[in-house]
Amino acid sequence: MGQGKSQFTEEELQDYEDLTYFTKKEVLYAHQKFKALAPEKVGHNKNAKLPMTKILQYPELRVNPFRDRICKVFSSSNDGDCTFEDFLDMMSVFSEMAPKAVKAEHAFRIFDFDGDDMIGVSDLREVIERLCGPELKLSDSEIQQLVQNVLEEADLDDDGALSFAEFEHIIDKSSDFCHAFRIRL
Amino acid sequence: MEDEIEEVEARPPSARRNLTLRNNAARQVAVNFMPSRQLPYNTLRLRRNNSEHNALLEENDSAETDAPDAVDKQADIIVREMEQHKRLMEDDPGAEELRREALRDLPQGLTMKRNVRAKLSASVSLRSKRRPISMWKRMKYRISFTWKRIRDRCRDVVFSFEFWYEPIRQIEGHFGSAVGSYFYFLRWLFVLNLFLSILITTFVIIPQALHDVETSNSAKLSFLDFITGMGGLTDSLLYYGHYHAGDVRAHSSLTYNMPYAYFFTMVCLYLLFFGILCYRTAYSYRVNFIETSGGLSHVFANKVFCGWDFGVVTPEAAKLNANSLYNEFKELLNEQNRNKAPTWWLVRLGQYVCNVCVWVFAAALVAGLAAALWLLLAWKPGPGLTYWPLLVSLALTAALTICPLMFHVLVKLEFYNPRTALYVTLARTWLLDIGILMVLLIYWSQAHADQCWETSFGQEAYRLVLLDSVISLLVLPLFEFTRGLIYKWSNKGSPPEFNLAYNSLTLLYNQAVVWMGGMFAPPLVLGVTIKLVLLFYVKREVARRACQPARKVWRAAQTQTVLYMFVTLSLFTTIFGIATFFLRTSSTSCGPFSGYSYVYEILTEGALHLHERPGLAAALYFMVRPGVIGFLMLFLCVSVYYMRARARAQRSMVRLLRHMLLLQAKDKDFLLTAISNVSNGEWLYSPKPTDEGPDSHTWKYLREVRKPSNSGFHFDASRLSHSLIEGRPRSFAKENRASHYNEKKSEDGDTDSSFSWQGSNNYLNKTDGDRQWP
Fold first, then answer.
1. Cβ contact B432:B400 at 8 Å
2. Contact, B425 vs B404, CB < 8 A?
3. CB spacing of B555 vs A176 below 8 angstroms
4. In this complex, is the C-beta atom of B558 within 8 Å of any C-beta atom belonging to chain A?
5. Which of A69, A91, A158 to mutate to test the interface with B (most CBs of B within 10 A)?
6. Residue A98 to residues A89, A101, A102, B434: CA-CA distances in angstroms?
7. Which residues form the EF-hand domain (chain A) (predicted)?
8. Most B-contacting residue of A13, A19, A90 (CB-CB within 10 A), to test interface
9. What would the 3-class secondary structure string for chain A be?
10. Is residue A78 left, alpha or beta, with left meaning phi > 0 and alpha meaning psi from -120 to 50?
11. pLDDT at residue B398 tops 80
């Protein structure tokens, strides 16, 4: 998979292997995929920064309702543009090897639209609206009821928002989360 | 219970307090200095990257985090927190590995991780006291390094050899992870069988083949023999009966004892795979059922947070995913809104009776099929029908193909939720498969006891595998393709979906036949392995060209566990069945063990030479006496019961502890609010209990849970168990709070931020639990 002349030195690969959940081969494979998004740019500079629109060409991200959030969370410049290292980070978190806790951490940040470290009512509304897609719309009261139910189940300390601990509790009890929150390289 | 729920639902959403962000930063500072935050586990996780630390350092703007000095500062914080963990900062390979893992689990970008790593290693080398290390330690380190390197290399190799990676990924992208998991199951079975066939080939088939070359006897084969597995094939490598009962010598002085090879290869394989399967099933069960406590408790939150399948690639699949989520949300809400009147007991009884009737019918069907099979096998046809056994196998395969479909229809008559319905269908089909195979085993061992029943059963298994291959590789795909084509042309009806349950069932059946037949027809495993390869490609084409993604999202994690469980169960039944027959029927007629009167004698006479060692023999015979085995069983039962009792006790303990944790969290919340209020100078002394803000949970719980008579920490057990049984520990408090909130509002609306220690204390001493106060 990573045949041919590589753009990376052995040390760099070892470095990536130490810091992510990937092996060297997988890192190279990820770089191929990254390169496929913008061949000429990445060909010049292996760690080129690609704009968010380019990153969103990645098949799994293209159809994902939270695509812009994912890019923003993983972007080191916080504006959605990603370098290869950001991309590698993203893929590492979404990979099968990443533990549930790390996945939950990032999922929490993705769902936290307003960035206040709590998943509040407005965040939940946004999540539900995005999940149902652009064509189908739930009515306002239905969304309200759904949000209410989610809080009812998950909001242990009754402050009207989910803290990370509460979110993690939900994720811990879910057998499907690891299956769902996964993008294969 | 019922009206409680209603009251909770009727409560206007505005009644929910929204104090989240109030004093958030100041609070975080306080929280950060709490002892629990200083524990290694928490500091290692270092999760809340921005706000806490920024609040700690009183940094002004989080938008500046990309500036190099901000990154530096944050890295400093992380390193400082890591430094508090002693085990992590030691200067040896173990700690280094720990550091590596801690770094990897850090929810930060790569730049940050690198920064932290540099600082960390600098700090470690600064602290380390360089001492000469002992020889023993050096060796230990070297071994652990090598081990780690080998492990990494292995993972690398596994990744490059992970076959069917891209195809399965594509299917997953099209159909979602549920259909993907079917293909993973198929791949797993393939690897299992591949491993099996490699071992069997090397240890059993090849030696026998070498022996055959020397003795060279060739029988005439006709085409029909290949289909029936009889005739010229009877005395071939294919079956148990052909295997040599003595030493094998192939052009050399070395000998190879065939009976030992056959016996120990088979026994080891079966036991090894039984162990692997048990472990895997137990692991899967633990992850998917126990750790998630069934995973059914948070229906809404699960749907919202785990609803989207991130592996989906195509726009159509994404649209279907969105549609199904939309529908499921609607269904959930409808279900909730529907008046949950308890079903009338007569209706429930009717449902129960119906379920039982269908179960009886299904059991009767299985029994009837088994009986019919017995009659068919026993019927001696006239001389015109030489291939009667083939016809029987054909009928059998047809029945085994159609019956699962019938069970699918049957289960619709019953009253189960979809998941249970699937499990019930799986269980019935498994019962059918195993029942039929057992009947075959019993029939052949009785009818051909004097001839070579092992070979006869092997032939039966051969025919079943062959016919099943034809069905699953040709007939069913053709059927699916035509269905897909008809749908494409006419555009009527519903598009054919990939029937996950049925397909998994055929795989289960296939594996059951392999377990049963492998003992008596070793090359069968090889054939099945090849069949699985073909099956993969056929199924992939079928899925791609003729099927539509399912409209209902089908979550696979738990079903997967059940599938593993059934594979393990069939292996267990097989081992049990085969062992029984080997213990009871004589093996002198044919096969590798014909030198012994019973198969087990190869162990007792051949390997252990028991007749020369009377002491060992006496010990062994004592151990297999019914009394001893009965006692062992009894002991096992008692220990299982003891474990179960302990598990239950622990479960209730966990529930209690969880509740306590909840209460303490609320206490902490209350105290923090109190502290921040005090620090804001809002502390008003007021003895009125009504000044109690709705914020303080503690107060409420003091009233509900802690008895005023006890000053220490104490649970009111009756209250607790009451709320626990309901499974909604919070509803009671909420209901109360809501009413209290409204009352309070009517009195004065301006005391929200005021509170009183004294007030609640006084109140505590005055009331005893009921709502007597204004």
1. yes
2. yes
3. yes
4. yes
5. A158
6. 11, 8, 7, 39
7. 99-134, 142-177
8. A19
9. CCCCCCCCCHHHHHHHHHHCCCCHHHHHHHHHHHHHHCHHHHHHCCCCCECHHHHCCCHHHHCCCCHHHHHHHHCCCCCCCECHHHHHHHHHHHCCCCCHHHHHHHHHHHHCCCCCCCECHHHHHHHHHHHCCCCCCCCHHHHHHHHHHHHHHHCCCCCCCECHHHHHHHHHCCCCHHHHCCCCC
10. left
11. yes
* Residue B501 CB coordination number (10 Å): 20
The β-bridge relationship of strands B247-248 and B256-257 is antiparallel
DSSP state of B204: I
Report residue B50's pLDDT band, with 50, 70 and 90 as the boundaries: very low
Measured from the Cβ of residue B12, the count of other Cβ atoms closer than 10 Å reads 8
CA of A40 to nearest chain B CA: how many angstroms apart?
A: 24
Q: What is the pLDDT of residues B26-38, one digit of tens each?
A: 566 666 666 555 4
Token representation of residue B24: 């958030």
pLDDT value of position B383: 64
- pLDDT confidence of residue B36: 54
Rounded CA separation A28/A172 (Å): 32
The answer to whether the Cα torsion of B59, B63, B67, B71 is positive or negative is positive
Q: How far apart are CA A183 and CA A181, in angstroms?
A: 7
Residue of A nearest to B162 (CA): A1
DSSP string of B370-382, one letter each residue: HHHHHHHHH----
Residue A36 touches chain B, beta carbons under 8 Å: no
What are residue A47's DSSP bridge partners?
A: none
B177 touches chain A (CB under 8 A): yes
Among the partner-chain residues B109, B293, B297, the one whose CB lies closest to the CB of A76 is B109
Q: Is B64 on the interface with A (CB under 8 A)?
A: no
List the 55-74 stretch of A: residues with Cβ below 8 A of B.
Answer: 59-60, 62-66, 74
Minimal CA–CA distance to B593: which of B305, B282, B242, B255? B242
Residues 600-659 on B with a CB inside 8 Å of A are none
Q: Could you read off the pLDDT of B637-674 as tens digits, one per residue?
A: 999 999 989 988 988 888 888 788 888 878 887 888 88
